[in-house]
Amino acid sequence: MSTTAAPPDAPAAPARTRRGPSLLAAALAFAALTWVGLARWNAGRSGAFDLGVFAQSAQSWASGRLPYSDIRGLPLLGEHFSPVTVLFGAGWWVWPDPRSLIVVQALALAAAVGVVHATARRHLGAGASAVVAALFTASYGVVNVARLDVHEVAFAVPLVALACSALLERRLRAALAWSLPLLLVKEDQGPTVVAVAAVAFLLARGADRRRVRLLAVGTAAAAVAGTALAFAVIWWANPDSVVPLFELRFAGEAAPAEPLTWSADGQPRAELLLTVLATGGFVWVRSPLALVAVPTLLWRLASPYESYWSTRFHYDAVVMPVVALAVVDVLRRLRPRARRALLAGIAVASVTVSAGTYRAANFVADPLDADTWRPSAATRDLRALSADLPAGSLVAADNGAGAYLVPRHTVRIFTNTDPVTADVVVVDTRIDGAGATRAGKLALLERLRGLGYPTLERGSAVAVELPCRGTVWLPEPGRESPLPPPVWETGC
Q1: Bridge partners, 4 (sequence order)
Q2: 432-440 contacts, C-beta under 8 A, 24 or more apart
């Protein structure tokens, strides 16, 4: 006996449902994802990259200026075309604190959860929709965005969810309309818009077929033009007149082509594909919606930049709503008994692969740790030190300290690779950081204390007032560097 309830091209009309359950699902997701983000902040693990960068961007937007980051040292439209980060600026205007960005991001992710739940409930019923929404919320792609400070890609997640929901229900004009704002999220979203247009083109049926297809072609053309414009803006705004996306993702030596070749950080390309496939129990690729995920996966697999192959970062976020709604598309075609059995298998696969990803991550919030529910001693030390420094100080901070200083100071990043100008050096002596080892920080502090420079200590957070504004960087013990001498060597 066949288990198919309806042919793929003739889906049953969705039932009208109450909004309350979907709003509840979104509210629960918002609470959970806000806690995941704030837990990192509370534990003192938030970084100047990327929370500090986006906080400085939000400061600029909130004051009526285009986004600029002293941490990056350039106008941010010269790095990525992401006008959507003005929403972070709105959050900063309400609450001038980096945590406001975490809340805004959680709102965006929660909105996507609401869309996924509402769509699933219309087609699968109350029980199955709750499971699908829970799996989506807990999926590694969504949680990775929340647990790794903030990223502009979070704003793409609800847009992709809305576009895929409309594709699933053959509301093709709406799908095309929801996809276009992706062009304002980041310059790499144009291919996703083209993919949505391609699926709409293929799904067009009936008397309106010709008009929808023309609209799909127009949407794809707009995506190409919008992407070209985004690259032009980046090139114009970048001080070096380059497009960093090309410099980072496709420059340098080509990566090995074999799909099972392991990269330097232990993440093979094949693992990325297997993880994404398993998140939807492998069956989600039977839906035409799966085509929407293809561009994101292709550019990541083609890049020689190994981090793009990894599942431990935020890059899979835009794929997760595609997977979730493609699962809904597959399940709605089955009879109830087969649907329940398949959903159970999908749940096991999704939970297993996400749990494995969390185990390999460098930080996952622990609900049993009190420091994830309230500011830890390390966070309080950094905030206290910030309050003790003169407001508006030009500070060179290591990655671990930078984000906590942004609200009151102009922050630049203190590393062993790039010199910056500063009045004060601030370091977090707890942990190694990007370009700043703990041993190097401790050695430098000992040296500066020996020179008699004023030092301010708040637990693990230490600030050193320099004799004058000048070039600073972190000399690592036993390591020579071609960088210019720091200010404590050259004098004022």
Answers
A1: 334
A2: 433/47, 433/398, 433/399, 433/400, 434/47, 434/49, 434/399, 435/398, 435/399, 435/474, 436/398, 436/399, 436/400, 436/474, 437/476, 439/476, 439/477, 440/416, 440/474, 440/475, 440/476, 440/477
Task: Say if residue 260 is exposed, middle or buried (CB neighbours under 10 Å; 0-12, 13-18, 19+).
Answer: exposed
Higher pLDDT, 35 or 484: 35
160 and 230 housed in the same domain: yes
Which of 360, 385, 414 is where one domain is finished?
360
Q: Do 387 and 285 reside in the same domain of the chain?
A: no
Checking if the pLDDT of 74 tops 80, the result is yes
Are residue 356 and residue 382 in the same domain, yes or no? Answer: no
Length of the chain: 492
The answer as to whether 367 is a domain residue is no
176 within domain boundaries: yes
Q: What is the pLDDT of residues 351-370, one digit of tens each?
A: 999 999 888 787 788 888 89
Number of folded domains that form the chain: 2
Distance of CA 489 to the CA centre of its chain: 40
> 450 Cβ partners below 8 Å, 6+ apart?
none
By residue range, what is the domain housing residue 419? Answer: 377-490
Angle between helix 20-42 and helix 98-124 axes, rounded to 10 deg: 150
Residue 161 pLDDT greater than 50, yes or no: yes
Instruction: Tell me: do 189 and 247 sit in the same domain.
Output: yes
User: Is 12 part of a structural domain of the chain?
Assistant: no
Find, among 404, 409, 401, the residue nearest to 460 by Cα. Answer: 401
Structure tokens at 271: 């693992």
Are 337 and 385 in a shared domain? no
**304, 325, 360: which is the final residue of a domain?**
360
For position 489, what pLDDT does the model report?
84
pTM reported for the whole predicted model: 0.92
**Count of other CB atoms within 10 angstroms of residue 76:** 23
Q: Is the pLDDT reported for residue 257 higher than 90?
A: no
The answer for residues whose C-beta is within 8 angstroms of residue 44's C-beta and 6 or more apart is 376, 378, 379, 382, 400, 404, 428, 430
- 281 and 352 belong to one structural domain: yes
Answer with the residue of higher pLDDT: 304 or 388: 388
Instruction: Locate all alpha helices (DSSP H) within 316-376, ordered by sequence.
Output: 320-331, 336-360
pLDDT of residue 14: 61
- Does one domain contain both 318 and 439? no
Asked, for residue 3, whether it belongs to a domain, the answer is no
Q: Are residues 66 and 207 in the same domain?
A: yes
Q: Write down the pLDDT at residue 6.
A: 44
- Determine the pLDDT at residue 362: 75
